[in-house]
Amino acid sequence: MRQIYEWLALHPELGSVFHGFMTTQSNLHSDALVDAYNFSGVRTIVDVGGGHGATLGAILRLYPTMKGILFDLPEVVATWRPDAPDLASRCEVIGGDMLRSVPAGGDVYMIKRVIMDRHDKDAQTILRNCLSELGEGGKILVVDPMLPADTEPHPNWLTDMFGLAVTGGNVGRNRSFAISSPQPV
Q1: Which ranges of the chain would DSSP assign to H, the alpha helix?
Q2: pTM here?
Q3: CB atoms near residue 86 (< 10 Å)
Q4: How far apart are the C-alpha atoms of 1 and 20, rounded to whole Å?
Q5: Does residue 125 belong to any structural domain of this protein?
Q6: Do strands 67-72 and 44-48 pair parallel, antiparallel, or not at all (unpaired)?
Q7: Residue 88 dihedral angles phi and psi, to the nearest 5°
Q8: 123/175 Cα distance (integer angstroms)
Q9: What is the pLDDT of residue 21?
């Protein structure tokens, strides 16, 4: 998966289209996420691989005392623009590589639609990096589409096939660390 992001960095005009598509996808999921998870009591949330911050912004708008850290590749977060006036003062934006490290200081590390398209080794590295910065009582929130147990038609099969095509295989199917939500997110 790393190769696609390196390629997009070398082709910023296409990278912009791709990251814009990802923001649109985040906008479609944000309401379901904030309905499914209670963020009360969270002081600081780190959105790992948070793109342009659509989901983080939705959470911060509902929790006005919460602070956020938007973390993604430097070329992605460089184009972040807050969609509400107070978000800029409550959100720190950091560019970096989640396979190397993640920012410190979060009560919750949210990894939304990131693990699903990573090979197991990279997925484990990302999770370990979050765990290394997590304080006592903190949480790692993994939000990824889950595949149904049967073969009935489901939109997540398309998501999975897209991930397989982009990464060349070995994604999503038999992860021993998959986390599911009681409600579809």
Answers
A1: 2-10, 12-36, 54-62, 74-77, 87-90, 120-133, 155-167
A2: 0.76
A3: 11
A4: 18
A5: yes
A6: parallel
A7: -60, -35
A8: 10
A9: 64
17 is a domain residue: yes
- The angle formed by the CA atoms of residues 98, 111 and 135, to the nearest 5 degrees, is 80
The model's pLDDT over 104-134, given as tens digits with 9 standing for 90+, comes to 999 999 999 888 778 889 999 999 999 999 9
Question: In which domain, by residue range, is 43 found?
Answer: 2-167
* Distance, CA of 78 to CA of 50 (rounded, Å): 12
Q: How many domains does the chain have?
A: 1
In a domain, 51, yes or no: yes
Neighbours of 23 (CB within 10 A): 17
Residues of the chain falling short of pLDDT 70: 1-8, 15-16, 18-28, 154-185
Instruction: Please report whether residue 178 resides in a domain.
Output: no
Q: What does the pLDDT read at residue 20?
A: 64
| Closest alpha carbon to 58 in 77, 37, 72 | 37
Radius of gyration of the chain (CA): 16
Contacts of residue 17, defined as CB under 8 A and 6 or more positions apart, other chains included, come to none
Burial, 181: exposed, middle or buried (Cβ in 10 Å; 0-12, 13-18, 19+)? middle
Angle made by CA atoms 69, 26, 115, in degrees to the nearest 5: 75
pLDDT at 174: 41
CATH number at residue 157: 3.40.50.150
Neighbours of 107 (CB within 10 A): 18
